[in-house]
Each structure stands twice: as structure tokens, then as C-alpha cells.
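call fold(seq) -> C-alpha cells
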Amino acid sequence: MEQDKGDKGNRGVEQKRKVSFKEWWGDARPTKTAVFWSWIASIVLTMIIGFAWGGWVTGGTAQSLAEKMAEDAVVKRLAPMCVVQFKQAPGKDQKLKDLEKTDTWQRSEYVEKQGWATMPGEEKPDSKVASECARLLMLIGK
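ret:
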């Protein structure tokens, strides 16, 4: 009889067993609301990661980057022409020495005043071409 009392005591208390993640996941039934907000969170997280670290850019940013790259490419192609115009100038050795004596921030102005940065067919010099030309001329002077 004592065993009967013991059995009755154990029957009332359910034994809790540890549920594995696989079993829990298999039994999980998310609501439509939970699924919807999970999708929204996934989309937002994907966009944040894409724009911050994935290299994604907007159309406007891509346009401005393309314009800057095109302008830089033109400057790199025109600067050697400026150097050629320098090499054809009379008294180029003295002018190169004068350029070397000029302060760094005024060298592009010196190149513009000499007319080396004025490309054929243009009326006035390009300041970016003059700056790159001054940099190239300083490399020649070394």
C-alpha cells in the first residue's frame, strides 16, 4: 500500500524533460504578425549592411562619382600636354627654377600665368590641369 501512495504522488507531478532546439523549432508556429515583422527587420538590416559595408550607393551618388572620375581622367590626360607646352617654352630651365622657388600653393597659379595649362582651342587655363601639371613639373625638376 505504501507503494500505491508513492505512485499517486509521482503521477501528480509531471516530469519536465529538456527540449532540444530541433524539437522546439519543429513545434514552433509563428504568427503572421511575427513573420511580417521578421521580414521587415531582415529587409532593413540587409539595406543597412549593404549601404554601410556592401558598397551600395544611390543613383545620385553613382552619378557624382562617375562625373568626378571622368573629370580626373581628363585632367590626367591633359596634364602631360601641359608639360609638353612647358618643354617647348623658351627659357624653360629658368622657369622651372622659378617654379621650384614658388610656394607650393601658388605653383598652379604660376603654371596658369605661363600659359602652359591653356589647352589648344581654349581661352583660359584649367586650374586642375595646372595643379597636376605643376606636380609633374616638380617631378621633372628632381
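The chain has a mean pLDDT of 89.
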